[in-house]
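User: Thanks for the earlier help. One more: NAD(P)-dependent oxidoreductase. Can you show the sequence and predicted structure together?

Assistant: Of course, both are below.
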Amino acid sequence: MASIQDKIVLITGASSGIGAACAKAFAQGKAKLILVARRLERLEELANELKHTTQVHCLSLDVCDRFSVESALKSLPESWTNVDILINNAGLSRGLDKLYEANIQDWEEMIDTNIKGLLYMTRFLVPGMVHRERGHIINIGSIAGHQTYPGGNVYCATKAAVRALSEGLKMDLLATPVRVTSVDPGMVETEFSQVRFHGDIERAKKVYQGITPLTAEDIADIVFFCASRPPHVNISELVVLTTDQSSATLVHRRS
């Protein structure tokens, strides 16, 4: 295992779910954390929890806003500018409607966050990694990027884009020591389904009814594992499912 102590790790979507779990996992490894999300109050709560373990810098930022991303990253204090690990975790799904009946605003939000946000963060941070000859980009994808399911249309398309962008970036970084990893989970019980169903908690609960889903901590453990491999080891793509799930659509539910 390679040490990640004192490495600067930037995590988008860090205010909850997989992002917050990653923050805690990397804090245990003594990495320095830049936590990015729109909800500053949630970020500050997490930073307060972790401040006795490691150094934390919070950025209240909407990754969909290209100019805000560029401005925020350029204004980082000098001691925080050399980001070693970028975890592109910010992402969401909206709705489960047929393509021809869906809310177009839901499409815009998924495309802007899942694709454009990832692109903006990558574009502004990876040049520094190449220049310093060290770095790792870890994109949080989804089983939805491998297999489309009914009602998933645009969400699945955005996660297929994450998979393609990860592959393309890896090719572009060949002959550099910068690594690229895509971690693609199946069913993880976080706020994901609540966001998908616009806050309908009861409907969200039914998604995980009768199964033992993955947890945010499960995914954070995997992300940490990928980041802590020796420099010559790059875990290119990793698909992880709960044992109760065998594909995007096949799930065993116990009564």
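User: Great, one quick takeaway?

Assistant: The chain has one domain: 8-240.
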